[in-house]
TrEMBL record, chain A:
<dbReference type="InterPro" id="IPR002346">
    <property type="entry name" value="Mopterin_DH_FAD-bd"/>
</dbReference>
<dbReference type="GO" id="GO:0071949">
    <property type="term" value="F:FAD binding"/>
</dbReference>
<feature type="domain" description="FAD-binding PCMH-type">
    <location>
        <begin position="1"/>
        <end position="177"/>
    </location>
</feature>
<protein>
    <submittedName>
        <fullName>Carbon monoxide dehydrogenase</fullName>
    </submittedName>
</protein>
<keyword id="KW-0560">Oxidoreductase</keyword>
<dbReference type="InterPro" id="IPR036318">
    <property type="entry name" value="FAD-bd_PCMH-like_sf"/>
</dbReference>
<keyword id="KW-0274">FAD</keyword>
<keyword id="KW-0285">Flavoprotein</keyword>
<dbReference type="GO" id="GO:0016491">
    <property type="term" value="F:oxidoreductase activity"/>
</dbReference>
Automatic annotation (TrEMBL), chain B:
<dbReference type="InterPro" id="IPR046867">
    <property type="entry name" value="AldOxase/xan_DH_MoCoBD2"/>
</dbReference>
<dbReference type="InterPro" id="IPR037165">
    <property type="entry name" value="AldOxase/xan_DH_Mopterin-bd_sf"/>
</dbReference>
<keyword id="KW-0500">Molybdenum</keyword>
<dbReference type="InterPro" id="IPR036856">
    <property type="entry name" value="Ald_Oxase/Xan_DH_a/b_sf"/>
</dbReference>
<protein>
    <submittedName>
        <fullName>Xanthine dehydrogenase family protein molybdopterin-binding subunit</fullName>
    </submittedName>
</protein>
<dbReference type="GO" id="GO:0005506">
    <property type="term" value="F:iron ion binding"/>
</dbReference>
<dbReference type="InterPro" id="IPR000674">
    <property type="entry name" value="Ald_Oxase/Xan_DH_a/b"/>
</dbReference>
<feature type="domain" description="Aldehyde oxidase/xanthine dehydrogenase a/b hammerhead">
    <location>
        <begin position="20"/>
        <end position="129"/>
    </location>
</feature>
<dbReference type="Pfam" id="PF01315">
    <property type="entry name" value="Ald_Xan_dh_C"/>
</dbReference>
C-alpha cells in the first residue's frame, strides 16, 4: 500500500493552482486535507502524475462575513468549525455536526471543500450544508459559478467539476434567531461512516422548511419544502407533526428499495426533528 | 507472598520501553543494503494459472514458482483418521485457491518500488467457479478446491454417546447458529526480515512470532536446511492472538531468496494483505438441538457443526483443529448424559482458517449458551436456573465429562451466582416491566465456559499435528554479579512474561526482579519449545522457571553452606541469600566465588555451577480448566437496531494468579475482541470468493468508546496439578462475550419474540429479526383467524 510515484506542487494562490490544473498532458489531483485521498493514493486507486496541495493558498482559508451569509474558504478544516475559529451563523448547527465527524485527527486536517468534492454519500457536510441551503463556488480559468451544495454532488464519489475547475468557497446563509434545526446520524461506532443521516431546518422568519435524508447510496434526498414533514416550525414539539409515511414515500421515490434501509432513514429524520427542542 | 513474588500486582518491567515507543518490532529493524519485497497476489479466488509475463526491465527482481527449485510446499497433516492432505504452495503454480495467494515475489529498493515492479507483472488467470459457502461446498455438485480429493472435506468426525436416550425428553429445542468469518487484528501485522549470515553459515530470519522454534522447524522442512542453519529471532511482538503462530509462505519466500541474493530482505505486511489474504478465523455453523426436562435438566445435546477451513491446512495447527475440537469441547462446563456431534472441516476458496484467541471455544460457547437460553424460554425458567441445574458441581471435582475432558478444579455455580448478584438480576427484571424513557429495550444475558489450557502430550499426540508439546524447558543461570538470567522458548506477544516469569523466580530465590532478566524470542539463545499458544505460558514456562529456580536454589545452597561452614541441610534460600544457623551469604557473594574465586571452593563442589536447564510437566498434562461467568446488560434500539452495552460483569477463576493486574489486562483485551465478535467484526465474501473488506473502514473493530469498563471479580481455586496452582487464562476473555451479549440481546427482544442467532449482531440483523418475528406473529394470527 504505497502510492505510485507522483510530483507534488503547493501553489500559493488559486491562479497558480488553476494553471497547474490546466495541463491536459498530466493527470492532476488536488489535495485539500488528504483524509480520503491519502488512503486512496496508498491503495493506488488514484494514480496521479501531479498532486497539487492547495492548503498553502491563503484565500482558501479565508472567511468573509457578509450581511446575510458567510463565505468559507474551501480549506477551512472541520476543527476550525468545531473550535469556533470560524464564526457560527447557524445557531450551532455546523459546530455541532463538526464535532461528530470521524475522529479528531481527521478533523484537524480534513477540509470542508475536500469533503464536498470527495462526494462520499455518508459525509456529514454534504447533508447538513444541503439542509442549510448552502452553495459552493467553483472557479475555472474562464470564470466562476455558484451552485447549491446538493447539486454539486452528481453521485457517489462524483462531484460536478468541469475540467480545470476547482471549488474555492462555500456560502452558508445566516439563520434567523427563531430557526430550529436537528441532525441525527446512525453509526455503528464512534467515528465510523454513517449508515443513515436525517437533518432538518425550519426558519419561519425566512420562510424556510427543509429536510434532508443523507447517507444514501448516492446524493442526499433533499425535501426543499418540508412543511408537510416538520410543520411551520412554530409548534412546541415539531416531531408531533412528523409524517413518517410521507417521509418513507419520499425516500422510496428517490429509489431506496430496501425496506430496512428505508426504515432506518425515516427514523433518522424523525429523531433529527425530535432533537429540535433540545438544540 | 512477597512484594515481588507470585500474587503481586507488579508494574511491568517491559512497560518502560513499550510505553515510550522504544520497543523493537520487525518494522523497526534496518539492516545495511536491505531491500523490500512486495508480492503479486491472486486477484481471483479460484483460477488456473497460465503464463506469467515479466517485462525485461524487471528481470532479476521477480521470482515465481519456477524459480523455487527444491522448495517444498507447506504441509500440515493431522493424524486423525480420514484427514485429507493439502499442499500450500510457496508461490502458486497450476492453480490459485484463494484471493491473495502469492504468485510472484518482487524486490525493490523500497516497498513503493517493489510494488511498482509487482504492478508490471502480468499473469494469465483462467477463472474457475469459486467454493465460497461451506454448507454448499459439501454438496456433490460443488466445484472442488483440491480436485484429487473428490470432495471438499478436510475431515469429518463423529461422536455418539447414547443420544437416543434423550429423544423422549419433553423439551426439544433446535436452532441454526453461526459465527461470521473474522480477521484477527493485532496492532502489528506480520513482517519478516531475512539475511544470510556467512560467518555463522546461517539464515537469520526476524519475524514477529509466537513460536520461533516451530517456525524454524517448518522452515527447515520447506527449505531443506538443517536446524543449525536457521536462526529465528522474534523481537517485540505487537499482538499475535494465533496469527503469529503460523508459518507463512512469505517467510519461506524471503528465506529462500535471502540465501541467494547477497543482501537482506524485508517484507512488512500491509493492512490490506492482512485483512484479505492473511488472518482469517472463526467461521462456524451449527445445527444444534438440546433435549431437556421441564425443570431445565439437560437430557442431551445433538449437533452438526461445520467450520470453513479455507483453502489450505496451515502449519502447524492444521485445517481441522477448530472443527475437531468442537466435538470435544461443545459440552462446556455442564454435566449431561447423552451427546452426539458430527463435524466437518470444509475446504473453500478463502484464506486458511487460523486459530484465534479462544480457538473453537468462542463459537462453541456461542452455540451452546444461546441454545440453553432457548431451552430456558421454552421451559419458562430463568436462564441461570437452567445452567445451575446442569453445571458440574464443586463436589464433583475433579470431573471427567462426557467427552473425557478432565476438569481439574473449580466452583462453576459460585462464579455464575456471584456474577448475577453483581448485576442485580431482580432489579433488572423489575426495570424491564416498564418502558425505558428513550424507547430502547433492556436485556440481560450471561454465559459461562471452561477453558482447557496448557494441555500437553497426552492430548496433542491424539491430534497428530506437526507439533506435540512435551516437557517445557527453561534455563536459569546466576550471573557473576548475582543476577539471574532466565531463558525460555515461549515468546511474549503481549503477555508480560518479562515480569511474570521474574516473579516466579523471585518467589523461589528472592532475587530482586530488577536483577532478573528474561531472554526469549531467539532460537539461538533459548531451549526448544512449541511456543506461546493454548494459554500455556503461565503453567508451562512458569512451571519450568520454578523448577529451574529450585535447581539453582539447591546449587546455591551447597556453595553457600561451604562459605558459611554449615551443613547444606541446615541452610535455606531466602531474600536472595543463603541463610545458615550463624549467618548468611548473598547470591552476589556466592556467584562471585563460583565464577571468579574458585580457589575458595573445595574440589567436591558441584561442577554444574549455578546454571540449570530443566523441563517441566504438570502432574497431569490433560490441561488446566479456568472458567468464567460473563454477564452483560444491553440496551437495544428497536428502530435503528443499535446495541449498547450498559454494564458488564466478569467473575473468573484462573487458579493462583501470578500477577492479578496482568490477568485483568488479559481479560480486558479478550473482552474487547469478544465484543468485536459479538457486534462488529465480519469478513464477508461475494459469490466469486472476493473478500469485501480490505480496510478498517469496511472491517469494523470496536474502539475505546465501544468497550465498556468491565467489573472483574476473581476466584482463586487452585489447580491440583500445576506449580502454585496456576491455570491458563489467556484466551478466556474472548470466549464468553458473544454468547453473553447475544443472550442479552435476545432477552431484550423477547417482547417482539425475536431471536438473533448469528454473530455479529449488527443493526441490520436486529431489524431483520424483529421484522421476521412480526411477520411470524401476523401469520400466526391469520392462521388462528382462519381456524
Amino acid at each position: 500500500m504505497k502510492p505510485v510515484n507522483f510530483d507534488y506542487a503547493r501553489p500559493a494562490d488559486v491562479g497558480a493552482a488553476l494553471a497547474l490544473l490546466a495541463d491536459d498532458s498530466l493527470s492532476v489531483k488536488l489535495m485539500a486535507g488528504g483524509q480520503s485521498l491519502g488512503p486512496m493514493l496508498n491503495m493506488r486507486l488514484v494514480q496521479p502524475d501531479l498532486l497539487v496541495d492547495i492548503t498553502g493558498i491563503e484565500e482558501l482559508k479565508r472567511v468573509e462575513d457578509r450581511a446575510n451569509e458567510i463565505v468559507l474558504g474551501a480549506c477551512i478544516t472541520h476543527a476550525d468549525i468545531e473550535d469556533l475559529r470560524v464564526p457560527d451563523v447557524t445557531c450551532g448547527a455546523l459546530p455541532s455536526v463538526a464535532r461528530g465527524i470521524a475522529y479528531r485527527a481527521v478533523r484537524n486536517r480534513g477540509t470542508m471543500g475536500g469533503s464536498l468534492t470527495h462526494a462520499d454519500p455518508s459525509a456529514d457536510w454534504l447533508s447538513i450544508l444541503s439542509t442549510l441551503g448552502a452553495k459552493v463556488t467553483l472557479r475555472g480559468r474562464s470564470g466562476g459559478r455558484t451552485i447549491p451544495v446538493e447539486d454539486y454532488m452528481l453521485g457517489a464519489l462524483e462531484a460536478d467539476l468541469r475540467p480545470g475547475e476547482m471549488l474555492v468557497s462555500i456560502t452558508v446563509p445566516k439563520l434567523s434567531r427563531s430557526a430550529r434545526w436537528g441532525y441525527y446520524k446512525s453509526c455503528r461506532k464512534t467515528g465510523e461512516f454513517a449508515h443513515a443521516i436525517g437533518a432538518f431546518l425550519v426558519d419561519p422568519d425566512r420562510g424556510v422548511s427543509r429536510a434532508v435524508i443523507g447517507a444514501t447510496e448516492s446524493r442526499p434526498i433533499v425535501i426543499a419544502e418540508a412543511t408537510h414533514l416538520v410543520g411551520d416550525g412554530k409548534a412546541e414539539r415539531l416531531d408531533l407533526a412528523f409524517d413518517s409515511h410521507a417521509a418513507g414515500a419520499a425516500i422510496e421515490a428517490a429509489g431506496m428499495a430496501d425496506p430496512i434501509d428505508r426504515q432506518t432513514h425515516v427514523v433518522a429524520l424523525r429523531r433529527a426533528i425530535e432533537r429540535a427542542h433540545t438544540a | 507472598m512477597t512484594e515481588q513474588g507470585v500474587g503481586a500486582s507488579l508494574l511491568r518491567k517491559e512497560d518502560d520501553r513499550l510505553l515510550r515507543g522504544r520497543g523493537q518490532f520487525v518494522g523497526d529493524i534496518r539492516l545495511a543494503g536491505m531491500k523490500d519485497v512486495a508480492f503479486v497476489r491472486s486477484p481471483l479466488a479460484h483460477a488456473k494459472v497460465g503464463e506469467i509475463r515479466i517485462p525485461d526491465s524487471c528481470r532479476g527482481q521477480v521470482f515465481t514458482a519456477a524459480d523455487l527449485e527444491g522448495v517444498k510446499p507447506i504441509v500440515a497433516v493431522s493424524g486423525l483418521a480420514g484427514f485429507k492432505v493439502s499442499e500450500q504452495p510457496i508461490l502458486a503454480f497450476e492453480k490459485v485457491r484463494q484471493v491473495g495467494e502469492l504468485i510472484a515475489m518482487c524486490v525493490g529498493d523500497t516497498r513503493a518500488k517493489a510494488e511498482d515492479v509487482a504492478a508490471c507483472v502480468e499473469v494469465d488467470l483462467d477463472e474457475l467457479p469459486a467454493v465460497h459457502d461451506m454448507i454448499k461446498a459439501r454438496e456433490a455438485a460443488s466445484a472442488l478446491v483440491h480436485e484429487h480429493w473428490g470432495d471438499n472435506v478436510f475431515l469429518e468426525t463423529f461422536v455418539d454417546v447414547g443420544i437416543e436416550a434423550a429423544f423422549d425428553a419433553p423439551i426439544k429445542v433446535s436452532r441454526e447458529i453461526s459465527t461470521a468469518r473474522q480477521s484477527m487484528a493485532p496492532m502489528e501485522g506480520r513482517g519478516t526480515v531475512a539475511y544470510w549470515d556467512s560467518r555463522m553459515e546461517q539464515l537469520v530470519l526476524y519475524t514477529g512470532s509466537q513460536m520461533p522454534h516451530i517456525v524454524r522447524t517448518g522452515l527447515a522442512e520447506c527449505l531443506g536446511l538443517d536446524h543449525a542453519q536457521i536462526r529465528i529471532i522474534s523481537p517485540d511482538v505487537g499482538g499475535g492472538f494465533g496469527y503469529k503462530g503460523i508459518l507463512l509462505p512469505e517467510d519461506v519466500c524471503l528465506g529462500w531468496l535471502a540465501m541467494r541474493c547477497g543482501h537482506p530482505l524485508r517484507w512488512i505486511e500491509d493492512r490490506r494483505e492482512h485483512l484479505t489474504a492473511g488472518a482469517n478465523c472463526r467461521e462456524h455453523h451449527y445445527r444444534i438441538t438440546a433435549y431437556a426436562d421441564r425443570d431445565g435438566k439437560l437430557r442431551g445435546i445433538d449437533c452438526e457443526a461445520t467450520v470453513d477451513s479455507g483453502a489450505y491446512s496451515s502449519y502447524p495447527f492444521s485445517a481441522c483443529l477448530e472443527a475437531a475440537q468442537v466435538a470435544s469441547i461443545l459440552p462446556g462446563p455442564y454435566d449431561f448424559p447423552a451427546y452426539r456431534c458430527r463435524t466437518w472441516s470444509v475446504a473453500t476458496n478463502k484464506c486458511p482458517i487460523l486459530p484465534y484467541r479462544g480457538v473453537a471455544r468462542t463459537g462453541v460457547c456461542y452455540a451452546l449458551e444461546l441454545i440453553l437460553d432457548a431451552v430456558a424460554r421454552e421451559a419458562g425458567l430463568e436462564p441461570h436456573e437452567v445452567r445451575l441445574k446442569n453445571l458440574v458441581k464443586p463436589e464433583q471435582m475433579p470431573f471427567d465429562n462426557i467427552t473425557k475432558k478432565h476438569f481439574d478444579s473449580g466452583d462453576y455455580p459460585e462464579a455464575l451466582e456471584r456474577a448475577l448478584a453483581a448485576m442485580d438480576l431482580k432489579a433488572i427484571r423489575e426495570r424491564q416491566k416498564h418502558p425505558e424513557p428513550d424507547g430502547r429495550l433492556i436485556g440481560i444475558g450471561h454465559s459461562i465456559y471452561c477453558e482447557q489450557a496448557a494441555h500437553g502430550t497426552s492430548v496433542y499426540s491424539g491430534w497428530g499435528i506437526p507439533m506435540v508439546p512435551g516437557h517445557e524447558q527453561a534455563t536459569a543461570r546466576v550471573t557473576p554479579d548475582g543476577g539471574l538470567e532466565l531463558r525460555v522458548g515461549v515468546h511474549s506477544h503481549g503477555q508480560s512474561m518479562e515480569t511474570t516469569l521474574a516473579q516466579v523466580a523471585h518467589e523461589i530465590l528472592g532475587i530482586d526482579i530488577a536483577k532478573i532478566k528474561l531472554v526469549h524470542g531467539d532460537t539461538e539463545y533459548t531451549p526448544y519449545s512449541t511456543g506461546s499458544w493454548g494459554s500455556r505460558c503461565a503453567v508451562m514456562a512458569g512451571g519450568a522457571v520454578a523448577t529451574a529456580s529450585r535447581e539453582i536454589a539447591g546449587l546455591a545452597k551447597r556453595i553457600g553452606a561451604h562459605l558459611l561452614q554449615a551443613d547444606p541441610n541446615d541452610v535455606e534460600v531466602a531474600h536472595g541469600k543463603v541463610v545458615g544457623p550463624t549467618g548468611s551469604v548473598t547470591f552476589e557473594e556466592i556467584a562471585h566465588t563460583w565464577y571468579l574465586r574458585p580457589q575458595d571452593l573445595p574440589m567436591s563442589v558441584d561442577p554444574r555451577g549455578l546454571e540449570s536447564t530443566i523441563g517441566f510437566k504438570p502432574v497431569r498434562d490433560s490441561g488446566t480448566f479456568s472458567y468464567a461467568a460473563h454477564v452483560a446488560l444491553v440496551a437495544v434500539d428497536p428502530e435503528i437496531g443499535d446495541i449498547e452495552i450498559l454494564d458488564y460483569v466478569i467473575v473468573e477463576d484462573g487458579g493462583k494468579l501470578i500477577n492479578p493486574m496482568v490477568v485483568d489486562g488479559q481479560i480486558y483485551g479478550g473482552l474487547a475482541q469478544g465484543i468485536g465478535t459479538a457486534l462488529y467484526e465480519e469478513m464477508n465474501f461475494d459469490a466469486s470468493g472476493q473478500p469485501l473488506a480490505s480496510t478498517f473502514a469496511d472491517y469494523l473493530l470496536p474502539g475505546p468508546t465501544e468497550v465498556p469498563a468491565p467489573r472483574v471479580d476473581h476466584m482463586e481455586t487452585l489447580s491440583p496439578y500445576t506449580e502454585f496452582g496456576v491455570k491458563g487464562i489467556g484466551e478466556g476473555g474472548a470466549i464468553a462475550p458473544p454468547a453473553a451479549i447475544g443472550n442479552a440481546v435476545n432477552d431484550a427482544l423477547r417482547p417482539y419474540g425475536a431471536e438473533l442467532l448469528r454473530s455479529p449482531m449488527t443493526p441490520r440483523r436486529v431489524l431483520e429479526a424483529i421484522c421476521a418475528a412480526s411477520k411470524e406473529k401476523s401469520a400466526e394470527a391469520e392462521r388462528e383467524e382462519a381456524a
